[in-house]
Amino acid sequence: MFKITLRTFRKLSQLFFLALFFLLFRLTDYSGLDEIPYAVNIFFRWDPLVAATVLLSAKVLVSLLLPSLFVIALTMVFGRVFCGWICPMGTLLDGTGKVIHAPAQSGQSLRSVKYVLLGIILVSSLFGLQLVGYLDPFSLLVRGFTLAVDPVFNLLVTGFFDPLYRYAPQWLSNISEPVYGVLQDSVLPYKQTFFQLSTLSGCVLLAIFALEKLEKRFWCRNLCPLGALLAIFSRFSIFRRFPKQACKGCRDCAPNCRMNAFDSDGRQLRHEECTLCMDCVDDCVNQPSRFRFAVPNSPMQIDMSRRSFIGAGLAGITLPLLSKVDAAHTLPRPFLLRPPGAADGNEFFSRCVRCGECMKVCIQNALQPCFLESGYEGMFTPRLIPRLGYCEFNCTLCGQVCPTGAIGRLSQSEKHSFVIGRAVFDPARCLPFADQSPCIVCEEHCPTYDKAIKFQEVTVVNRQGKSVALKQPYIIPELCIGCGICENKCPLPGDSAVRVVRAGKQSEEDGFGY
Amino acid sequence: MDRRNFLKQVAVWSGGVLLVEPVFRITPDLLAAETVSPLLSVGVGKNYANLVASVLQPLGGMAAFVKPGDQVVIKPNIGWDRAPEQAANTHPEIVKAVAELAILAGAKKVLVFDRTCNEERRCYMNSGIKPALDSIGGRQIQCSYVDERKFVPVTIEKGRSINKWSFYKDALEADCYINIPVAKHHGLSRLTLGLKNTMGVIGGNRGKIHRNMGQNLADLNTVIRADLTIIDATRILLRNGPQGGSTRDVKVLDTIVASSDPVAADAYATTLFGLRPEEIDSTRAAAEMGLGEMRLNKIDIRMV
User: Fold this and answer.
1) What is the domain-level CATH number for residue B128?
2) pTM value?
3) What is the mean pLDDT of each successive set of 10 residues along chain B, which is 304 residues long?
4) CB B213 to CB A445 under 8 A?
């Protein structure tokens, strides 16, 4: 029989926040308005790990991230309820665990690893190296869903309905098409997207879920640096589990604990590991234990040795140094374009938490994750690849969803003059030069009010010896903002005959400004 | 089997399977037959809805084109993410007025679409066209985005420059095809008018069309011949076309030109820019192919 217990409320809360997560993910898109009316990035804005690393690395307090104080306050009162009741990663892992059953509790524990990782991330960020994107649960989740899960989901559904539309008899597609329409209006993304690093992102996410096969909530117990940060704050929390005095010490609760939070004698609870899932309270058969408010008395030490602590600190100092001598930073990268409104050079790197929100929202599928073009620590930072998608002139969505200000929020008129790069023609390929044939598709699409691409009317002798009148395009650099629509629409096969190269402040820092 | 039915059948059968490629055998004589003394109507007025109705009067009203039960395609220019006053897209009030008249004339369904240059949702929204059509309500008017699956390959038998391209199924199948371009400047073709607006119903890499644009456009128009062309010159873009942006480049004329002859409509609209019809390559190429009349003195022009 179904009985309402504390666990029921926990599950409802988990489902609510999971649904909220997916709803906001879906709403991270153009809605017909120039402004996105919802705080679609709220999961990042209340993430204290994101707030802490941005504060340390960019040395700036980002007001967008103030909601993270709420999560810290919540943790200081109730402990890690965030992990047990709110975090969508935790909920998805719980769900995975129901499908692939972990073996019984082993005595071994790797739980100190997460503190080491947290230490490395925090110390590195203090020295300007932003690593949080590799391990922050929401960065992993939103990025993984944006780059891999969502496109694959759409591919699967489309792959089912498309053949029905194309090959099935009319009566069948008369049924399937309305169903497809409903799906398109509800759960499917607006269109099929394509991303670099889709396989890598998908596999990283898959690996996190596969770890569930080793231990329940392996990720949360052992790896999650956000969990580690909340664990530290939870040590001061005043809402704690107490066995009733008459607890016989049957230890039934300990082996079932999803966080393996009980100590070896099975009675004492490591409070900072507990996510308040309430299983042990609900399952207690003898004399129910319960949670109540109390002043903590002599909490156990965080499960981290002094050696680990020092090791994490040293690694956190070493990694930024290694990154400083990475030649990827001195090599010119003329085609590495950043989104409109991106902060300059180092500030962009120290603010960007690789959350993937900008890539999710980009309506032209133009923003793509970097691989190793700007060093390993630049992996998953957004870049504009015009041949895949150009930057839409009137669109300012990426700056609106960026939770940390790595991509600044631009008004439409600021956006119209923000220099992403500058277009450069390759006359060896451009049709009116190389082939003596008319084209100027680039000029047609150039969106600046006074076109940055203009043309010269010339008469040339073509290969047949005939003299022909032609319009040959050229760039007015001061007018070009590098949106890349020219590169995108150039009708040549393969590479475009007009390419956008880095310009503006970023390229000045490279020392090879255009 | 009549022509429409034939078109419909081949389009359906070739839809997606890509095995059958229809061949269009529209002879120049057949096309020329309708253009002996083309009627063209021009109107000026501030109330665009009334203006559309009165401009169509000399042509016999919408009922001369749309028969009860027809599937009507209205093809405005929704190419750019621009506001109505920037004159890059067809004016939303005109699109709305034409759609309403088609419904009044008994159209079973009115399809409005364009393969846009900028992101389609932004274009449909910011052109004001989708909101205007949505405000009519009802299920007869469908203002939907282009579905890539509906482009079917077509062999253009009469094509002089291109003989194969993919076209949008709904456009091929329409009982009545109403072309409502906006008149504006264009860097390569000088102006974009009715014949050029046909580029919005073709698939593929449209940039390639630019290689021999005038003839290519005429070729495309042997496949899609508008039953009615209504050129929106309520405000025209004089420079920085085809998408403009600055209202300094826009001139308000409050004018609409309508004709069942697409070449005549383009020819007349050219004069609004102070140009002669033969200066526009596509007009000249189409006239040479017998698609319509471009000599202004051979066109029966009615001012309303």
Assistant:
1) 3.40.50.11440
2) 0.91
3) 70 54 51 68 97 97 97 98 97 98 97 97 98 94 95 95 96 97 95 96 93 95 96 97 94 97 98 97 96 96 94
4) no
